[in-house]
Design brief:
Largest sheet: 2 strands, antiparallel
Structural class: mainly alpha
Shape: elongated
Helix content: 55-70%
Radius of gyration: 31 Å
Distance between the termini: 49 Å
Number of strands: 6
């Protein structure tokens, strides 16, 4: 079958070339954006008197009917068409006759697909932002609930200092808030309509690009027609944002997996978000967290794929740019899927506070507070550091913890120890003393929780 672009050639290509060139099997998901954009384009053509008003109205009615039929399933997408744009135009012409051929006046598939992708990504990014906000809310609720739970904080995966579990959760909330901020910044930069740039040089018709952009919800238009059709910076930037988001989820997944292990037993995930073993009946595997960790590499790959596609393309449009869609669609799908499973997984997570406390006690993570106690009584820090290390070694040798070692044993190392020592090295007190802004004291944690609530409220206000 001859193509709609037949003219310079006979429009008849080999079947293998057709299959290789076709994009409809993946760009079919753009049908809503393609038809919505075409309706706005027809309205602009009517307003400017470029096509007869009656023809424009027939086109808009025909497009609305196609969109309704696609959504209802009454109309199926014909994958023998080259792309979604050709499919829509072909069906429109079949339904309303030659008036349908007027729709493509003053535009090209180059600016058409650029418009479709911007509209699609705008919708999907907003959906992802809402999911991230929902995850932040779940984590913040847990931060309130577990504000009294002590756990060991780690550096180098070694027990380091006592913290409240809420402080750990809030660290991820801060990461996710930055993810939302990055995505909002990217949305602002991509808020330009490329339609009207045509193939690369604009058009001789008296179009109104601003009017068409306004109809489609854009705040402005792209300033350079060549850039408009060849720009995929926004896709690369969004995939970069997605990669950072997935990195955050992957780091959290790694901790969830560790915390769920028999060696830690800090948490237990709901059966609804774990799996079992086909041969070992005792197993409860964190497959959802593991898959999130694994799918992070997939999103990284999508980003690298698009960067590689774009790195050597001269201006303006080249067919290479058709390769933007599959990695972008894959990254969008992956991020949404991971967030949708993560939200209820965290919401239904159970905390084993006793094991967290036990790990904190046996890790001697209040040794720094022991040294600080001596320093405050006049001993130089390096001397206090050495004595603390000796006392820890004694506890290990006798299978004790700092809180249970008798005062008589402490006095063997330094004669200034007193009963107030035990208050100084109490794990809760040790955490509560970290009163600096952003620290792990409960006063600071409450401030952080309120900060997150304020940020969420501001975001909500910004979407109203």
């Amino acid at each position: 079958m001859a193509k709609m672009w037949a003219g310079r050639t006979d429009g008849i290509t080999d079947q293998i070339a057709d299959d290789f060139n076709s994009s409809i099997h993946f760009d079919c998901r753009l049908y809503n954006e393609d038809i919505t954009g075409s309706m706005a384009h027809a309205a602009m053509l009517k307003k400017q008197g470029i096509i007869p008003a009656e023809a424009a109205e027939h086109i808009i009615e025909g497009l609305a009917g196609i969109l309704a039929d696609l959504k209802s399933g009454k109309l199926a997408i014909d994958e023998s068409c080259e792309d979604i744009h050709m499919f829509v135009e072909q069906v429109l012409t079949e339904r309303i006759g030659d008036e349908g051929k007027m729709l493509h006046t003053a535009r090209s598939r180059n600016d058409q697909v650029a418009l479709d992708m911007r509209m699609y990504m705008r919708t999907k990014v907003k959906e992802i932002i809402e999911l991230i906000k929902e995850l932040i809310e779940v984590l913040n609720e847990a931060s309130v609930k577990y504000i009294d739970v002590i756990m060991p904080g780690y550096t180098h995966l070694q027990r380091a200092q006592p913290i409240f579990f809420s402080q750990h959760l809030l660290a991820y909330e801060m990461m996710l808030l930055r993810d939302v901020s990055r995505l909002n910044d990217a949305l602002e930069r991509m808020d330009e309509s490329p339609i009207g740039a045509c193939a690369l040089a604009g058009t001789t018709y008296d179009t109104d690009r601003e009017y068409e952009a306004e109809l489609l919800g854009f705040s402005g238009i792209s300033a350079n027609s060549m850039d408009a059709v060849s720009d995929r910076d926004y896709c690369i930037e969004l995939l970069s944002c997605f990669s950072i988001l997935m990195m955050h989820l992957s780091r959290f997944s790694e901790e969830i997996i560790l915390w769920s292990s028999w060696e830690f037993r800090f948490i237990e995930l709901s059966d609804a978000y774990t799996t079992g073993s086909s041969i070992m009946p005792q197993k409860k595997n964190c497959d959802m967290a593991e898959l999130t960790r694994g799918k992070t590499g997939r999103v990284y790959g999508d980003l690298m794929s698009l960067l590689t596609v774009m790195k050597g393309i001269p201006l303006a449009y080249n067919k290479d740019m058709q390769e933007d869609k599959e990695p972008v669609f894959d990254a969008v799908n992956t991020v949404i899927m991971c967030l949708r499973v993560y939200i209820p997984m965290i919401a239904n997570m159970k905390i084993n506070s006793a094991n967290m406390l036990r790990a904190a006690q046996s890790g001697f993570i209040n040794a720094t507070d022991l040294a600080d106690y001596m320093v405050k009584k006049g001993l130089p820090f390096r001397s206090a550091y050495k004595i603390s290390g000796q006392i820890v070694a004694e506890c290990i040798r006798t299978d004790q913890v700092l809180e249970t070692l008798p005062l008589s044993e402490y006095s063997k190392y330094w004669d200034q120890f007193d009963e107030d020592l035990y208050e100084a090295i109490d794990l809760v007190n040790a955490a509560e003393k970290r009163t600096s802004k952003g620290g792990t004291s409960r006063v600071s944690i409450r401030e952080q929780i309120e900060l997150v609530n304020q940020k969420l409220a501001e975001m909500q206000k910004g979407t109203e």
